[in-house]
Design goal:
Largest sheet: 3 strands, antiparallel
Number of strands: 3
Structural class: alpha+beta
Shape: elongated
Length: 177
Amino acid sequence: MSVGNFSGGAVPGAEAPRVTSWNTVASYATYAEAHAAVDRLATAGFPIEEIEIVGSDLRSVERVTGRLSLAQATASGAGSGAWVGLFVGLIVGLFTVGPAWLGLIVGGILIGAAFGMVLGLAFGIAARRRGEYSALRTVVATRYDVIALDGTAPAARDALGVAPPPPTAPPPPPVYS
């Protein structure tokens, strides 16, 4: 079993990528296919510490989910405000003695939610005037290369039973219009 970090942050105890020379073992269209190839290498006893998966040709994808409604903006603002209010209530509650801390937390949540609703409504009205919409954004790769470090690519290709990839030509220069 493998553990991946898809948040883009550093995994505690993990090293930074060590790409010293680009020795592509195989290329795949999806991350799942590249991951399965690494699993096959691990099963074959290959030292997978010498393997990395590199996503190439990144694209930003925005999936429009609909128009931004005032109800969505207000609810989102209330939720965010409630979290801020909870945090402030907890901080103030640290310096309170007795059962009054519970009232501070509840009060912080309610005041934060009310303040967030007002701000969410105001930002929602401003966004509607600009014709805003709600969307989910992500970055995806169009190709995933399984690469091997320190000259281990031929052994990895043998373990996977794949031929070396053909050399690639450099991309054409950009055209500005």
